[in-house]
Fold this protein.
Amino acid sequence: MSKRKRRLTSKATNNRVAETPSRKNLPLLVFEEFANGVFQESVAALPFGFTREDFVRELRTYLEYSSKQIQLTGRFKVKAIDIGRYYDPQKHPGLLEQADFKKWAEPLLTDDNLRMLDSPMQSLRKRAGELSIDWPTAALVLRRVSDKFLPDQRSQAIKRGEFCEQIIAELKRTRETKSQFRTFEDLERLYPNYEVLRILKHPRFDSQDRDLLVSPFPGTTSR
């Protein structure tokens, strides 16, 4: 897809959201779900002593820096997240001494914490491009997703109610997509982040309990 077509597609996607707020935007929802999975993997791999709050703080610093424009030779500009592709002093003399490079791009290349985030963030950058979502819009989605990984200050009653709604929604979704899986393992591959599946893998549940989730509706037979 050409750069012009990507820009037009991204602009049209964002305009649809602005013009019809009641209409769900499929590319953004797909990206949000993908981002949630990436962040869950990153949080699960955090060492002891590096909290979720620390992770979100570094992530937001990365997002702030990554969207900034860096001037290259002539009038050519790139976002700081893409600077690694152009980090060649011979092709772009003076780049390393530019104020914008030093302030926004250099930390992404040299700061230990931000460098650790680069691999998952580049994966998110690639996925956003595949969905024709521009990076500033993607960064807003990532900020919203990162909020889920901060300590929840709401009351236990509210959190329990929300969790119940989530489980019900996941169960409904599994029924709606019943034709796409036959076993519990298939279901795990299809929805790796579903809480209801994590619950059913607890030792207090056995294989018969898990089979109930993948069985046909009462009164029907499997194909």
Notes: The longest strand covers residues 69-71. The chain has two domains: 3-149, 156-214.
